């Protein structure tokens, strides 16, 4: 019997090749989307699941609160680790480590390597939590002494090719020409996905015994950096509420002066990969994006299911006689249901196989949305194949159950007498499903237009400073020969294609924050305010064309000696008139000027209180270069960059020259939004593709059903235009209804998305009008593929066939 079912299913699929192909293509798109999302979710959920006792491991994080604002940090102050060991009995292991992101050059036996991955400073406690397999050396002793380093097996092969883990022991590695270390151990690489896949572990004692101490170690409890992190492992039977209370008490005991306070909390190990509240080195999984992608995949799958239901029920009349004969010959309802569901399953299985073959191409197109470690090699594994099989069964039941019921319920007497609905199924249901399809597609089109409009607004908004024709060149962080920076600045200043150069810290707008607590005492009360910091010389204001509202620019200085505030900071300290704050002493230095507000981050965030100041040489490490007119074909800029690189090589011959245009830096602030726009483009295209397939199938079926009517109308004098209008009107009504229903849905969803921007574009009426026009044109083009051909057909052929 099974063989017979299979044979009949194959024959019916082959006999209706056009409709079968439409169904397979639509289902393949939906299944492909579901497959990609499954791969992403499975990949992201696999991080750090293999560590022993991971449910007892936590990262200590900091919440810093001050007047009217708060900051979250993935780091803690340096003394916290020792204090937790001594004062909180529930702590079984405390493993502090410093993240090294300043090393630029690594020298081994005369060969130089560029550090492309983060190095950490750690001790034996780190290896008791993040457990590696030791190939040489010992976790107890390898990082006990200063100036020792442990390598992973892959890094050891890179540095010392051909040597065994035992032979690597004792080899020298020099970091940034100053830190001479000896290899004391080699561990195997972590096999699972992890956010703690470091490849070099320098002993933490090295920090305390070298010049690195000034970068990482501070005894103050208020000095918190995300590069100073702490993992702790609690004992198996502990009261978390009690531990949290003890941690809070510990913070209160070491509360510094001022109005700020720091609250330390325990972040579960399993939360680290998904929690983006704490800025750090980790490529976090964005749960909101995963949910959004899941909804998109579900929507595309539903659209494909709607296609199947519509086309199958529309063709029901063609199979009514088959059903009647089967029933009259003793076929049961259950047997017919099994037959029709079997056909659906076969189509779905073919769609799944098609999806599996096309998936590598889809992964390539969606590479910018996918995690770096996700590749097409994961496609051909048992979990993926089982997922596709399960999805095929689910789709078969959800999409096939109603068409199967329609087909199996035909009564043999009515069928054989020709007393059945020629349209097959309920027409109102088919129209409702078609409207739903186009409503989803219309939503994606409108959303794409509005997101693109917001991105255009963000990139072209006046941010309060000049952002064109400016490049930034960061000098080597580790190099403490600050006079070399002055030399480079002078060399760049003499280049004819350069209009001006400033040496300072970060650009006016940046990804992240850099702030300080400013305290102002007016005699009656004390005002503490978190203030965003920017460092620059006297040319900084001129390069970026910041508008001075009151007072003057900074004077030349190599220390913090005076402040230039923005309007927001002036008002935060209680001064409505910018001139009123001039001369006021804040944090032991006078305010000498006020500049107009400018965006320091993306338009997601409000303009903060900001202070500009000169500083010590270590803060002035970036060259801000204003170029002259680009000239024809950008030749002036090209010559300028070439000459700047030449000057760089004269000053830093062993370091790599890098530069970035400021407008490109600002564009990178909206990477997430640009990815969203690209995703919506794909979603709109795929949603319309599936909907158009279904619409095309219905148009083909309808025109085939009305072949005789078309012939009679043409014989009676109907024109081609009249016939096209007749065949098109009913379908275009559905598209118009879908547009009307999509407007409130689109407005509600996009309105909530736009609320994440402090500065945002307006949802103009013409966006909806353009979206509707685009959908109408595309739908009309789809319908015309068949209707024009039917209208042009010779009526004699249609009537002769009758």
From TrEMBL:
InterPro entries assigned: ABC3_permease_C, MacB_PCD, Macrolide_Exporter_MacB
TM ranges: 21-41, 290-311, 345-366, 386-407, 428-451, 679-702, 723-750, 762-783
GO CC terms of this entry: plasma membrane
GO molecular function: transmembrane transporter activity
Keywords for the protein's UniProt record, in alphabetical order: Cell membrane, Membrane, Transmembrane, Transmembrane helix
Primary subcellular site in the record, as a coarse category: membrane
Topology relative to the membrane: Multi-pass membrane protein
Location in the cell: Cell membrane
Statement: the UniProt record of this protein carries the keyword Translocase: no
Residues covered by the MacB-like periplasmic core domain: 20-247
Ranges for domain ABC3 transporter permease C-terminal: 295-412, 685-795
PANTHER family: ABC-TYPE MACROLIDE FAMILY EXPORT SYSTEM PERMEASE COMPONENT 2 (PTHR30572:SF18), MEMBRANE COMPONENT OF TRANSPORTER-RELATED (PTHR30572)
Descriptive protein name: ABC-type antimicrobial peptide transport system permease subunit
Organism: Chitinophaga niastensis
């Amino acid at each position: 019997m099974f063989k017979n079912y299979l044979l009949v299913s194959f024959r019916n699929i082959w006999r209706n090749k056009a409709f079968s192909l439409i169904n397979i293509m639509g289902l393949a798109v939906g299944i492909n989307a579901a497959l990609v999302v499954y791969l992403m979710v499975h990949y992201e959920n696999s991080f750090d699941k293999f560590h022993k006792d991971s449910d007892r491991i936590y990262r200590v994080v900091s919440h810093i609160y001050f007047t009217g604002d708060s900051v979250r940090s993935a780091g803690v102050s340096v003394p916290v680790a020792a204090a937790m060991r001594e004062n909180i009995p529930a702590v079984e292991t405390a493993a502090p480590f410093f993240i090294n992101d300043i090393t630029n050059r690594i020298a081994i036996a005369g060969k130089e390597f560029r550090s492309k991955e983060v190095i950490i400073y750690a001790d034996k406690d780190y290896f008791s939590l993040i457990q590696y397999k030791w190939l040489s050396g010992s976790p107890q002793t390898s990082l006990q002494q200063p100036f020792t380093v442990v390598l992973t097996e892959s890094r050891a092969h890179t540095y010392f090719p051909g040597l065994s883990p035992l032979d690597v022991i004792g080899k020298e590695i020099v970091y940034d020409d100053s830190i001479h270390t000896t290899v004391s151990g080699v561990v195997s690489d972590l096999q699972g996905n992890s956010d703690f896949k470091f490849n070099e572990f320098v002993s933490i004692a090295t920090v305390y015994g070298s010049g690195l101490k000034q970068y990482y170690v501070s005894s103050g409890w208020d000095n918190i950096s995300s590069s100073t992190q702490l993992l702790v492992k609690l004992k198996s039977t502990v009261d978390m509420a009690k531990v949290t209370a003890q941690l809070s008490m510990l913070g209160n005991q070491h509360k510094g002066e001022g109005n700020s306070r720091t609250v330390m909390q325990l972040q579960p190990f399993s939360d680290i990969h998904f929690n983006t509240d704490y800025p750090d080195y980790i490529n976090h999984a964005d749960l909101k994006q995963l949910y959004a992608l899941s909804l998109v995949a579900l929507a595309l799958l539903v659209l494909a299911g709607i296609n199947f239901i519509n086309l199958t029920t529309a063709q029901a009349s063609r199979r009514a006689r088959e059903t009647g004969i089967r029933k009259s010959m003793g076929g049961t309802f259950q047997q017919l249901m099994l037959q029709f569901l079997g056909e659906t399953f076969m189509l779905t299985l073919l769609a799944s196989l098609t999806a599996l073959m096309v998936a590598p191409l889809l992964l390539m197109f969606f590479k910018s949305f996918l995690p770096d470690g996700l590749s097409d090699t994961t496609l051909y594994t048992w979990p993926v194949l089982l997922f596709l099989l399960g999805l095929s069964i689910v789709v078969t039941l959800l999409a096939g159950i109603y068409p199967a019921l329609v087909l199996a319920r035909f009564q043999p007497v009515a069928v054989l007498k020709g007393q059945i609905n020629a349209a097959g199924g309920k027409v109102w249901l088919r129209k409702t499903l078609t409207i739903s399809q186009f409503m989803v597609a219309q939503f994606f089109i409108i959303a794409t237009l509005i997101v693109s409009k917001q991105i255009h607004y963000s990139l072209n908004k006046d941010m309060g400073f000049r952002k064109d024709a400016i490049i930034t060149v960061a000098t080597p962080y580790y190099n403490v020969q600050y006079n070399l920076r002055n030399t480079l600045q002078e060399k760049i200043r003499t280049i004819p294609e350069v209009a001006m150069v400033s040496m300072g810290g970060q650009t006016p707008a940046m990804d992240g924050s850099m702030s300080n607590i400013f305290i102002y005492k007016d005699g009656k009360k004390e005002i503490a305010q978190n203030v965003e910091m920017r460092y620059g010389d006297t040319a900084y204001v001129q390069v970026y064309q910041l508008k001075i509202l009151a007072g003057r620019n900074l004077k030349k200085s190599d220390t913090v000696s005076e402040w230039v505030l923005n309007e927001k900071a002036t008002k935060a300290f209680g001064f409505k008139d910018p001139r009123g704050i001039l001369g006021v002493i804040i944090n032991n230095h006078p305010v000498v000027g006020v500049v107009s507000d400018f965006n320091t981050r993306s338009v997601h965030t409000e303009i903060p209180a900001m202070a500009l100041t000169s500083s010590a040489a270590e803060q002035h490490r970036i060259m801000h270069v204003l170029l002259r007119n680009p000239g024809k074909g950008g030749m002036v800029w090209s010559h300028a960059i070439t000459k700047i690189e030449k000057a760089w090589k004269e000053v830093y011959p062993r370091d790599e020259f890098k530069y970035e245009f400021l407008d490109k830096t600002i564009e990178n602030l909206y990477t997430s939004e640009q990815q969203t726009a690209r995703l919506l483009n794909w979603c709109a295209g795929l949603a319309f593709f599936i909907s158009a397939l279904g619409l095309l199938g219905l148009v083909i079926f309808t025109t085939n059903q009305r072949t005789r009517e078309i012939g009679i109308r043409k014989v009676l004098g109907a024109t081609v235009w009249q016939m096209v209008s007749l065949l098109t009107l009913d379908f275009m009504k559905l598209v118009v209804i879908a547009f009307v229903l999509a407007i409130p849905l689109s407005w509600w969803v996009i309105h909530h998305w736009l609320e994440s921007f402090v500065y945002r574009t307006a949802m103009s009426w013409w966006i909806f009008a353009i979206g509707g026009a685009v959908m109408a044109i595309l739908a009309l083009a789809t319908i015309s593929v068949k209707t024009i051909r039917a209208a042009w057909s010779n009526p004699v052929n249609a009537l002769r066939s009758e």
